[in-house]
Automatic annotation (TrEMBL):
EC number annotated for this UniProt entry: 5.1.3.3
Pathways involved: Carbohydrate metabolism; hexose metabolism
Reactions catalysed: alpha-D-glucose = beta-D-glucose
Segments crossing the lipid bilayer: none
Protein name (database record): Aldose 1-epimerase
Length: 357
């Protein structure tokens, strides 16, 4: 074989490798949006938040979300660190549902059930960067993804987007949108930052104080699939209507918190939760347009090597995932998450960070 032919084959091989890794506008990257000493880093792999940097009461900058040092580690992640969740966040019992007389069978990825959209849900795809403004008065990034008809078993094409933007002072806005293009389909988007506002490597969150503005939770079976019942939190370990330490009653439940709360407010933009860390002085206030929030205390994060070699353990962080009702496709008494063709799903989330000295 001549050297010219050999060179041609090598070039074609390299081109194939490059094409496999890069779709037009879809090279995997890390994008920072920054406003003074407030910085958020996002990767378009899974539309993930990979760091949130802000000062504590002493002015020391710290990263308040768990995560990894490399994109390769995020590709191998099974805990959804910082990930956008979809097409349907949370669990779908039996990995199936009926819609308009058709039974749709999904790909199970948690026993016989589907969680967070399936094994190749929105957390494990490369999103297109549609807009990116790193700093200035309105730092933001918009990511888009076209989910094809039949992907993970879900019906219809969906065009999804998420915009992360920094607002004054120390506010992170997250806006999810998704348009059903040609078939009715369930859509329930959320995301899964693992927060430790004391600092991702500061130990457990058991002494942090949490308030959740919800009087009820959705009950679940032994597989954490909703039964369809909604029950009050009063006089149970799940009651965070008044501020309480995460660890105040965690010993009274199995492993840790992993429950969906039904928010009390009927306002469009409603109070969700507050988190306070006394040592750092940091406070995180969450508002959202979604009707529910899932409270999770990293129960299955066991010996996970993260940023800087720090090893994460159960209760090393907490998640507050705003969302629609879980498994709503199988419970007619829950508000519907079905989006009809031509209609657009929208969900806005606002984190406000402050200091309490």
């Amino acid at each position: 074989m001549s050297s010219k032919v050999s060179s041609l084959f090598i070039c074609l091989f390299i081109l194939q490798l490059w094409a496999a890794a890069v779709v037009t506008g879809r090279k995997i990257g890390i994008y920072e949006i920054k406003k003074g000493d407030f910085s958020v880093k996002i990767t378009n792999y899974g539309a993930r938040i990979i760091s949130v940097l802000l000062p504590d009461k002493h002015g020391k900058i710290g990263d308040v979300v768990s995560g990894y040092d490399t994109i390769e580690e995020y590709k191998n992640d099974t805990r959804y660190f910082g990930a956008l969740l979809g097409r349907v966040a949370n669990r779908i019992g039996g990995a199936q549902f009926s819609l308009n007389g058709t039974l749709y069978k999904l790909i199970p990825n948690e026993g016989n059930n589907t969680i967070h959209g399936g094994p190749k849900g929105f957390s494990y795809v490369v999103w297109k960067v549609s807009k990116y403004v790193q700093d200035g008065p309105c730092p933001c990034i918009t990511l888009t993804y076209h989910s094809a008809d039949g992907e993970e078993g879900f019906p219809g094409d969906v065009l999804a987007s998420v915009t992360f933007a920094l607002k004054d002072p120390y506010k992170l806005s997250v806006v999810f949108k998704a348009k059903a293009l040609n078939k009715a389909t369930p859509i329930n988007l959320s995301h899964h930052p693992y927060w430790n506002i004391g600092g991702h490597n500061s130990g457990d969150v058991l002494s942090q104080v949490v308030q959740i503005f919800a009087s009820n939770i959705t009950l679940v079976d032994e597989q954490l699939i909703p039964t369809g019942e909604i029950a009050p939190v009063k006089n149970t370990p799940y009651d965070f209507l008044k501020p309480r330490k995460v660890g105040s009653r965690i010993d009274k439940i199995d492993r840790g918190y992993d429950r969906n709360y039904v928010l009390d407010s009927n306002e469009k933009m409603k109070p969700v939760a507050k988190v306070y860390d006394k040592k750092s002085g940091r406070v995180m206030d969450i508002q959202a347009t979604a009707p529910c929030v899932h409270f999770y205390t990293a129960n299955w994060v066991i010996d996970v090597k993260g940023k800087g070699g720090y090893v994460y353990q159960p209760q090393s962080s907490l998640s507050l995932e705003t969302q629609g009702y879980p498994d709503a496709v199988n419970h007619p008494n829950f508000p519907s998450i079905i989006v009809n063709p031509g209609k657009t799903y929208a969900h806005t989330l606002l984190y406000t960070f402050s200091i309490k000295k």
